[in-house]
Each structure stands twice: as structure tokens, then as C-alpha cells.
Amino acid sequence: MGLCGLGPPCYPRRSVVPTIGSIPGVTEFAFGRLLNPEEDVPQLSLTAEGHLMVRVRGEMMSRTDSLLLCSENLETRPLNRRMQGRAVPEVFRRLVSLEGEGHMVLSHENERFYPLQLHRDLCFFVEQYLWALEATLMWDVGQLPGSRDNHRLSLVRAAGEGVLALRVPGELVAIKVAIDRPYRVHVDGFIGWVGSVVPRMERDVPYLHCEGEGAVFVSLPGANSAGSQRN
Question: Is 13 within the bounds of a domain?
Fold first, then answer.
């Protein structure tokens, strides 16, 4: 018989007290989890949790909503909207120009960031999904021909050598489009395209008819997509 009744012997429970060595010092903890970029960090990168780190060396174009932290020595100025390579008086309402030396971190919230490198590519992206753009890229803003008030799509054309970042509601995938293989893409998942794709709004249905040669970027719905809202 055990000391506490029937069965094997039982012993008093001991409370588990962390040892001194298992708790990091506050300075050790801080310097072990620094979010300052190293010198070789690219202009755009992701933190371990998927937030976007924007490194500024001279000039960078980026959105600043969902800002988590930012170097104080960065200066911002509004961007003039560009159409066909020329600035026009209307101010581009999302991107700003960041100038100086420093960095900032933007929250992914319930979406996902995708940094992409352009190698003399010609790309078009739905304006609301574009979050950062290297100043070396050529860009301007327009509207998808045939899009209407209920499905008006503002586009950013980006070309050249440099990096940009997209933030989309779900997983970003691509569909190859060929002359003999056009596709229909739902407007809610349409992110943009690369190459010689020609998207056309379908009449009375929320689809884009995509033909030509290239690839169409599509955001697949994820677990958090139903609750996320477009900005």
C-alpha cells in the first residue's frame, strides 16, 4: 500500500521554478532579436513573421499604411501620378517617395507580402496590391480598358531592373496564357500579369478574359481571405 492510499507510493508535488540560467537578460534578449537590417539586406525582404522590411538607400517608393516602425531620418514626399511616362498634377494616393538612409517595417495584417525582382520585365499590377517599388523601375498608372464603375481596375505598369512588393489576400500563383490557351480569371483574384497578356472585362459577369502570351498573377483565397477587406 502506498503512503497516500492504495497503489504505488506517491510523493508531494514540487513546483517548477525556472532557473536563473533559463531566463535571458533584458540586454541579451534585445540584442538577440534586433530588427535592424544588415548591410547586405536587399531593398525589400520579409521578416520571420512575413512582414515587409523596406530598406532605403537614397530613394524608395512605398506605401506607409500598416506601418509598424520607421527610421526617423527618412523623409517622405508625395508622388505625382505618372501617365505614359509623364507626371501629371494628380497625386498618387498610395505610394510615397522615401529618401535618405534607413528602413521601415510594414505589417502584413491578414494578407501576404511577395517581394519580386524584375529583370527587364514588363509587368502590370492592380494598383491596390502594389506596396513598394524601387526607384530604378519605370512606372506609370492607368486603367484597364473596358473596366467599369462596379469593377474599375487601376493598374500600375512597371518595367526595367529592380524590385517591387505585392501584398495580396491569399497565396500568389500564376497561370500561363498562350495564343491557343486563353483563360477566364475572376476579378476578385486578379492581381496582374507579365508579358504580352491582353485582359478584357467580360460583359455582365465578374471575369476577365485573358489572352495573348505571358502569365497572369492570381491570388487564391486563404483561411483569412473571407474576413479581409480591400483597401
Answer: no
What is the pLDDT, as a whole number, of residue 84? 66
Per-residue pLDDT, 94 = 82
Alpha-carbon distance of 76 to 105, in angstroms, equals 15
- The answer for residues whose C-beta is within 8 angstroms of residue 2's C-beta and 6 or more apart is 8, 9, 10
Confirm whether 22 is domain-assigned.
Answer: no
Low-confidence ranges of the chain (pLDDT < 70): 1-21, 83-85, 89-91, 148-151, 223-231
- Domain range enclosing 208: 39-220
Residue 8 placed within a domain: no
* Number of independent structural domains in the chain: 1
pLDDT digits (tens, 9 = 90+) for 35-90: 888 877 889 999 999 999 999 999 999 999 999 999 999 999 888 777 666 777 66
For residue 159, what is the domain's CATH number? Answer: 3.60.160.10
Residue 90 CB neighbours (<10 A): 11
How distant is the alpha carbon of residue 75 from its chain centre? Answer: 22
Radius of gyration for the chain, computed over Cα atoms and rounded to the nearest angstrom? 25
